[in-house]
Amino acid sequence: MGGWKRQASALRKLPASASYQPILPTNCYAQRALPIRYVETVAGTPSALATARGEIDFTTNFSPPLIVAIDAGEPITVVGGVHVGCFELFAREGIRGIPDLKGKTVGVQGVGSSQYMFLSGMASYVGLQAAKDIRWVTSSSPNPMELFAEGKIDAFLGFPPEPQELRARNIGRVIFNSAIDRPWSQYFCCMVAGHRDYVRKYPVATKSFLRAVVKAADLCSTQPEGVAQQIVNAGFTPRYDYALQTLKEISYRKWREYDAEDTIRFYSLRLRESGFIKATPNKILADGVDWRFFNELKRELKS
Questions:
Q1: 112-117 mean pLDDT
Q2: Which of 217, 199, 171 is nearest to 1 (CA)?
Q3: Predicted local confidence at residue 110, as pLDDT
Q4: Do 8 and 45 belong to one domain?
Q5: Is residue 182 part of a domain?
Q6: Nearest CA to 200 among 72, 290, 65, 71?
Q7: What's the pLDDT at 28?
């Protein structure tokens, strides 16, 4: 998903966070939040900047684009985590791990995209210099997934429904899955963030909205079949099987267990190592987070 503008919500095109969007309006009404309106945005940096500009009030986004925006002084406040896992790295035979990507062609949606930031962080974590050691490939037509399917690039980092489609077509093999591979699986993938002024001025609405999001995440975990059908009915994807597979593979119940601050600290370190930000993790935390509502909901919604 992308975000919400009082009450508007900016959407990414489908994937993980989008899974709970069809059931989010009902939850918002139930929590006495204001009616929400979805606003379509592009995932990653565009969605983060749309929040900073006040075009939307809230966004669910991969944490690195939010951290980069906070480092740049944008008025964004991260208020909680949603789920673990999204990304899967597919590679051709002979590539067994991230170090093997040195000198290889890797497809991502764009330089500066969530995928690019994530894989750059992984590369720096194992001692590679992403900008120099990896040959990045971006293309709108054919897109990176199709280039990989056609054997024209060595690896591809995707998120739902791309991994589900590649597996269904028996293309490539997964050498990394952020839902299960440490240390990445120990931190949130998508998080909820709002415009700083909205979070400060409307604490009750902020908590109501966040409650709706985490309760929707619970439904994704406990009732994946029903949510998958709602995703299809809402037009997010025509493939019920892909939607259901995504819901079952992503850890939506982890929001109670994982530490949102640890996630921001971990990814801030990775982004600083790979040159995306200059601020320390403590500076990012001081400028761009507010865990009050998330911690309260963890206590109130224990099971």
A1: 83
A2: 217
A3: 75
A4: yes
A5: no
A6: 290
A7: 46
